[in-house]
């Protein structure tokens, strides 16, 4: 393998949202062996860079599911935006379903209700962490807005009135799975949008050419690397395109059965240093 790509949340990052020491050391070992390392995430560059910097990792970053690509020095290499008319269609359908939305743009991230999203997160975290107090749960939920700084406006329509605004991704949340299914079905045949997900409670809307797999191929070609020499790791549906595009697609142990089935192999979970295990396996094959 000449290039290793990894998703962040649910993959490279552990339950604390950090790159473990074992994962970081495995990545650095691979780089010392002459391999290149790339992060591919649904996050913005700002949110993606924080855990990488903390772990001492410098790499290109595929952001917003492939809508924007940065090199290791934060130089923008490529970007692809959504059509405004398509974005308005998505907004209309999601409004009917009463979904919380975030618009990721070249001017920042915009939404209309921090309190609504906090309540969504609190409901989920209460179920997943019954031993935590209400205050602890709300503190954890509030961290979401420190990770991704969101500007709150009165109405989503104001985004379309902004000058020179480019929309890279729309992220929608709902705890009602039936609403997510309904929105996906209504927009399934819409032109100019691809729909993925990075969790059980969200939908992610991008331009059809803004996918991790396409962006990874672009970076590999730039480096003169064939896709057969690329390994990609991920855990959710917004990782599917790169798991299938890479010569070796690795699903995390915490990924759904469907994601594991479309991958070439399965590693340990994100909380058990699955990224390190997959990289160490590659290094073992090289060194033996």
Structural description of this entry:
- It is built from 12 helices and 14 strands.
- By secondary structure, it is an alpha/beta fold.
- The chain folds into 2 domains: 3-80 and 210-287, HAD superfamily/HAD-like (Rossmann fold), CATH 3.40.50; 84-206, Hypothetical Protein, Haloacid Dehalogenase-like Hydrolase, Chain: A, domain 2 (2-Layer Sandwich), CATH 3.30.1240.
- Strands 5-4-3-2-1-12-13-14 form an 8-stranded mixed beta sheet, sandwiched between helices. Strands 8-7-6-9-11-10 form a 6-stranded mixed beta sheet.
- The longest helix has 15 residues, at 114-128.
- The relative contact order is 0.18.
- The model has no long low-confidence stretch (mean pLDDT 92).
Q: Main sheet: which strands, in order across?
A: 5-4-3-2-1-12-13-14
Q: CATH first level of the largest domain: which class?
A: Alpha Beta
- The proportion of residues in beta strands is 15-25%
**Structural class, judged by helices and strands?**
alpha/beta
Q: State the order of secondary-structure elements, H for helix, E for strand.
A: EHHEHEEEHEEHHHEEHEEHEHEHEH
Secondary structure: helix percent:
40-55%
Corresponding CATH architecture of the largest domain: 3-Layer(aba) Sandwich
Number of DSSP-assigned strands: 14
Shape annotation: globular
- The residue ranges in which pLDDT falls below 50 over 5 or more consecutive positions are none
Per CATH, the superfamily of the largest domain is HAD superfamily/HAD-like
Whole-number total of structural domains: 2
Instruction: Give the biggest sheet.
Output: 8 strands, mixed
Q: Count of DSSP helices?
A: 12
């Amino acid at each position: 393998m000449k290039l290793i790509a990894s998703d962040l949340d649910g993959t490279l990052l552990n339950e604390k949202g950090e790159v473990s020491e074992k994962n970081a050391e495995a990545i650095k070992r691979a780089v010392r062996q002459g391999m290149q390392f790339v992060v591919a995430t649904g996050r913005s560059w700002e949110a993606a860079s924080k855990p990488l910097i903390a772990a001492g990792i410098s790499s290109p970053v595929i952001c917003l599911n492939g809508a924007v690509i940065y090199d290791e020095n934060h130089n923008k290499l490529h970007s692809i935006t959504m059509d405004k008319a398509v974005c308005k269609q998505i907004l209309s359908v999601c409004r009917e379903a009463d979904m919380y939305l975030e618009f990721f743009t070249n001017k920042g991230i915009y939404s209309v209700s921090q309190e609504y999203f906090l309540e969504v997160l609190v409901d989920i975290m209460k179920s997943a962490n019954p031993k935590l107090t209400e205050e602890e749960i709300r503190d954890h939920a509030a961290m979401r807005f420190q990770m991704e700084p969101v500007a709150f406006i009165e109405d989503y329509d104001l985004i379309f009135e902004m000058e020179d605004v480019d929309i890279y991704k729309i992220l929608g949340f709902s705890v009602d799975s039936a609403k997510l299914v309904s929105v996906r079905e209504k927009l399934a045949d819409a032109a100019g949008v691809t729909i993925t997900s990075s969790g059980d409670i969200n939908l992610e809307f991008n331009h059809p050419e803004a996918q991790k797999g396409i962006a990874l191929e672009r970076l590999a070609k730039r480096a003169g690397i064939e896709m057969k020499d690329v390994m990609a790791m991920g855990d959710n549906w917004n990782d599917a395109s790169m798991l299938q595009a890479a010569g070796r697609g690795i699903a995390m142990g915490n990924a759904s059965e469907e994601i594991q089935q479309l991958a070439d192999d399965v590693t340990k979970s994100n909380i058990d240093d699955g990224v390190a295990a997959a990289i160490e396996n590659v290094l073992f094959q090289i060194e033996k």
